[in-house]
Amino acid sequence: MQDTNGIVRGALEKFPPELYLRDTPLTTADAAITDFAKSVAAKAGGSELKILHTLLAALHAEIVFDTKQTDTATRAIDAFRMKQGVCQDLSHIFIACARVLGIPARYVGGYLMRSDDNIHQEAGHAWAEAHVTGLGWIGFDPANGICPTESHIRVGAGLDYLGASPIRGARLGGRAEQMEVEVTVANTYQSDPAHQTRWSQPAAAIAQASQQFQA
C-alpha cells in the first residue's frame, strides 16, 4: 500500500468519468442535500478540488458516526435527514453532493488498517472518489475527514454500495437467521535480526473477512 495523497494510481478505468454522474436510489439528492452542496460550494469558491475538500470537512462535522441508525439499504437522503450514519452513509451523501455540483463521483468499498492497532473490526470500510479535471480520480473519506492513505485497502468501485460491495449473494432457508461479520486487517511485515524490513507477502496489509449465519 502507498500514500498517494488520495490520488488514484494504476487503476483500470473501463468507463468514462461522466458515467459517475448517474444517480441511483441510494445516492439521489433531495432538496436538503442539494441546498447543502450548493452552500458548501459557495463557501469554498475556487477550484473543484477546494470545493471537494470543503465538502469533506463539512460532512465529517455534520454527520454523527453511529452504527445503530442505518443499514445497507439506507438512502443518502435518509441518513442526511437523521444526521447519523456509518462510512457507507457518509460516502453516499458525499457522492450525492458531488453529483449535484456536476462532479463525477463513485463509491469505493474496501478495508481500513486502523491506527489504534485494533485489527478485529465489525465491518469493512467505504469512502468516495471524485474526478477532478486535470488530476483524475481522488479519494475522500468523509467518515474520517481525510483523503485515503496507505492504510486504506481499495477493493472495488461503483455507482454506490451495491456496485462496489466486496461480497454479494443470496441465501436459501428460513427467516430466523442472522448474519455476523468479522473483518481482520493487519500488517504482514516482519523485522529480521539485522533490523532490516522484509515483506512476508507482496502487500503490506491483508484483509480477511468471515461470515457466519446463526439461527
Q: What does this molecule look like?
A:
This protein is an alpha+beta fold. Helix content is 25%, strand content 28%. It has five helices and eleven strands; from the N terminus they run ααβαβαβββββαββββ. The strands form four sheets. It has a four-stranded antiparallel β-sheet with strand order 6-5-3-7. A three-stranded antiparallel β-sheet has the order 4-8-11, with no helix packed on it. Strands 1-2 form a two-stranded parallel sheet. α1 packs across α2, α1 packs across α4 and α2 runs antiparallel to α4. The chain starts with 30 loop residues before the first helix and ends with a strand.
Q: Which features would summarize this protein structure in a list?
A:
single chain; alpha+beta; 4-stranded antiparallel beta sheet; 5 helices; disordered C terminus
Q: Over the alpha carbons, how many angstroms does the gyration radius reach?
A: 18 Å
Fraction in helix: 25-40%
Please mark out the parts with pLDDT under 50 across 5 or more consecutive residues, or reply none. Answer: 190-215
- The count of strands amounts to 11
Secondary-structure-based class equals alpha+beta
For the terminal residues, how far apart are their CA atoms? 39 Å
Helix and strand string, N-terminal first? HHEHEHEEEEEHEEEE
User: Main sheet, how many strands, which sense, barrel?
Assistant: 4 strands, antiparallel
- Strands in their spatial order, largest beta sheet: 6-5-3-7
Q: What share of residues are in beta strands? A: 25-35%
Which term fits the overall shape? globular
What is the subunit organization of this protein? Answer: single chain
What is the typical, i.e. mean, pLDDT?
82
Count up the helices. Answer: 5
